[in-house]
Amino acid sequence: MKSFCSKASFLFVAFVVVTNCMFSEAQNCRPTGRFIGKEAPPGQCNQENDSNCCVQGKVYTTYECSPLVSAQTRAYLTLNSFQKGGDGGGPSKCDNQYHSDDTPVVALSTGWFNNKSRCLNKITISANGRSVVAMVVDECDSTMGCDEDHDYQPPCLYNIVDASKVVWEALGVPQDQWGGMEITWSDA
Predict the structure, then answer these.
(1) 128 Rama class: left (phi>0) / alpha (psi -120 to 50) / beta
(2) d(CA 91, CA 83)
(3) What is the torsional sign of CA 55, 60, 63, 66?
(4) Rounded Cα distance, 139 and 95, in Å
(5) Which of 21, 28, 63, 164 has its CA 20 to 30 A from that of 85?
(6) Distance CA 147, CA 152 (A)
(7) How many CB atoms are closer than 10 A to CB 87?
(8) Would the pLDDT of 105 be above 50?
(9) How many CB atoms lie within 10 A of CB 42?
């Protein structure tokens, strides 16, 4: 009996440790690399919507992952223009098109974008006691940046939902507070 209890206790402890490690790993997104930023050529970094330009010599962290998606995935909402000439850079990766700032569209961090698996699907974004449905049209690249393809902007963090202006309006955020805020989102 004593041997059975010892084995059962050991198995229980092992189960708890393994489960805890798996849960912790699922919640964490660790950096996958770093690179040194380079300054954009004059006039090449679009700073619309208070976008940041890369800084010469600054070390930028990259990510290939994002937290697991749930019914209320925590994220950070940022502002982006998906229009031609906007701070989003080139056309959207999902459809190779530009999108009006009056259309509820988003770009997701690389891990959530997941090799285009969410392309043209809708997500529900919640904040301020409100919700809005938006279509995924682009990737907010967490693996690269500071080059012409990325409008000389740094890589995105691993937990970004980069949204058009109409998304911010639908969430009831005063325009002088647009730029960044905590939200939750889920697949619609």
Answers:
(1) left
(2) 8
(3) negative
(4) 11
(5) 63
(6) 5
(7) 20
(8) yes
(9) 6
Alpha carbon of residue 93 to chain centroid = 15
Token pair 């990766």 in the structure block, residue: 93
Half-sphere exposure of 130 (CA within 13 A, CB side): 10
Taking phi first (over 0 means left), then psi (-120 to 50 degrees means alpha), and beta for anything else, what does residue 173 get?
beta
Q: Mean of the pLDDT values across residues 11-26?
A: 40
What pLDDT is attached to residue 7?
A: 52
Look up residue 66 and give its two tokens: 């994002």
Q: Which residues contact 58 (CB under 8 A, 6 or more apart)?
A: 36, 37
Q: What rounded mean pLDDT belongs to the chain?
A: 86
Burial (0-12, 13-18, 19+ Cβ within 10 Å), 139: buried
Concatenating the DSSP letter of every residue in the chain gives: -HHHHHHHHHHHHHHHHHHHHHHHHHH-----EEEE--PPPTT-S--GGGPPPP-TT-EEEE-S--PPP-TTEEEEEEE---STTSTT-SS-TTTS----TTS-EEEEEHHHHTTTTTTT-EEEEEETTEEEEEEEEEEE-SS--SSGGGTTPPPP-TTEEEE-HHHHHHTT--GGGTTEEEEEEEE-
What average pLDDT does this structure show over 79-92? 85
Q: What is the average per-residue pLDDT within 86-102?
A: 90
